Amino acid sequence: AQSVSQHNHHVILSEAASLELGCNYSYGGTVNLFWYVQYPGQHLQLLLKYFSGDPLVKGIKGFEAEFIKSKFSFNLRKPSVQWSDTAEYFCAVSAGGSYIPTFGRGTSLIVHP
Amino acid sequence: ETGVTQTPRHLVMGMTNKKSLKCEQHLGHNAMYWYKQSAKKPLELMFVYNFKEQTENNSVPSRFSPECPNSSHLFLHLHTLQPEDSALYLCASSQDLVDETQYFGPGTRLLVL
Fold first, then answer.
1. Smallest Cα distance from A51 to chain B, Å
2. Which long-range contacts link A56-64 to residues 24+ away (Cβ below 8 Å)?
3. If you measure CA to CA, which chain A residue comes closest to B3?
4. Contact residues on chain A for B92, CB-CB shorter than 8 A
5. Chain centroid to CA B63: how far?
6. Residue B16: left if φ>0, alpha if ψ -120 to 50, beta else—which one?
7. Beta bridge partners of B101
8. Which of A33, B26, B80, B92 could form a disulfide with B102 if both were Cys (CB 3.0 to 4.6 A apart)?
């Protein structure tokens, strides 16, 4: 079974700082990759996803993620964070014959104004 | 608002109570999911339904009993729960199992005393 690792459990940044959240997975075959975000008091929502094609994926609110197959990684980036980006970020991977995504533990991001 | 609603939003129950969680999706999706979100743990998939048929039971204890009367509604019946079952229970839906983008509801915060 695949596993998903998010190494940064808590990240604290100041506004305008650059962000990179790590996501690594353990499956060697074809994968579909997702980043979900959960703002305080709100539901989980899709930030971006990769199924195929350009490995650099652009999502909502200025976020992007790059799929690097050789590193089994799908890191999330944003060049300049805002206070409103404070949220919990979840990486998810579905692989092979399993159509159900496996979620990472999540990374809590706090952005100070 | 994602088109997935859950009721109640908060629930406190004793270990001998029986209660039910309700999920409704207004998106015309065919697949619905129950997840458990506990502090400091990855999102745990519990059940998957596709076209009203259960396709996945992720080794969930029998004190949790799902029901899917139609593609728009999903229930989670609870009885004789334990305090460790206290968590946020999330419902999600997707167009089908191939299109894996999931749309989440706001969750039911459950406290078992």
1. 10
2. A59/A35, A61/A85, A63/A35
3. A43
4. 44
5. 13
6. alpha
7. none
8. B92
E-assigned strands of chain A?
4-5, 10-14, 19-21, 24-25, 31-38, 44-50, 56-58, 64-68, 73-78, 87-95, 98-103, 107-112
Q: Between chains, do B100 and A94 touch, taking CB under 8 Å as contact?
A: yes
Instruction: Judge whether B100 is closer than 8 Å to chain A, CB to CB.
Output: yes
Residue of B nearest to A34 (CA): B101
Q: Which positions 23-52 of B are in contact with A (Cβ < 8 Å)? A: 40-43, 45, 48
Give the ranges where B30-89 is alpha helix by DSSP (H).
none
Name the closest residue on chain B to residue A91, using Cα atoms: B42
Instruction: Answer whether A106 sits within 8 Å of B4, measured CB to CB.
Output: no
Q: What is the pLDDT of residues B66-109, one digit of tens each?
A: 999 999 999 999 999 999 999 999 999 999 887 578 899 999 99
Contact B107 A90 (CB under 8 A): no
Cβ pair A21, A109 in contact under 8 A: yes
What are B111's two structure tokens? 């406290």
Mind listing the pLDDT tens digit for each residue in A52-93?
A: 899 999 999 999 999 999 999 999 999 999 999 999 999 999
